[in-house]
């Protein structure tokens, strides 16, 4: 679905993000003052909220690009629903409800008790969250692996950035289920590096991630096919919405777990990551309305490579810790290189067009001279 090119300024796209930033940081400062009663404590919590927001933004560049890639196929109605209701689910569901649900399940307590635990015993709350990291990483890593591989293992994909690798994967897509076989092999490899119950937990969680991806794909295809049967205008609706929500959840796992390295306070984490999520929303809207993905042809490639790297990092983190700064900078670097490659491609294309125009002018010039003579 072709999107109109917007003439809104860059700052205009981030207006609501700036507002939420101001409100969020003010709430963070208020929380710091109430919990510590000192200016230094207030400044510390204010700083942590800021760092968490930057962490979320750095980890989510690729999320914004993939969201934009899916949103451009959706109708304006479903775009609006995702960018309103979807962002509410992303901020409150994944940054607040999801961690509470993990603790409630892991500790066999009710949701209210999980909130009380987060407020009164943040250290215990953080311990439970960290213990749940292995199954979360296995589940989210597998889902993201399937997202990234499905982009490259596509027989109809004809634009390649790293040509030799992507052509090979595109040709390999003619073998049905090749990406699933690759992921299963990777699951078995990492499971063999773990011991005892951890190995079993990893396998089960990873399989659940794989099954979730396949179920979401099937449900999305059925829902969207049903909508096409009812009205072609409904194309890219509920199925795509569900896909994007599960995708956002998978992206959020790493940020939520990593945030506990900075603070054990759930409410500070929610403020910081919520601010970051608003910038992701703004970037998504800007990419869709400006047609950025169409103009920079390799930007999507960089995002999906970043997804694959993030998925592998989540797998590796089941063996040992990798600092979140490496995860964030690695993805941002890949996207930066893909943007640079896209700009170089556009310049070469423009130079060829000018050269061809000059050549045509030179060919036609003698013809005009003969006619004038």
From TrEMBL:
The keyword tRNA processing does not apply. Residues 354-373 are annotated as: Disordered. It comes from the Bacteria. Keywords: Membrane, Transmembrane, Transmembrane helix. It holds the Pfam family DUF475. Signal peptide: none annotated. The keyword Transmembrane applies. The chain crosses the membrane at residues 12-33, 39-61, 82-112, 132-153, 173-194, 206-225, 259-281, 302-320, 326-343. NCBIfam families: PRK14013.2-2, PRK14013.2-6. This is DUF475 domain-containing protein.
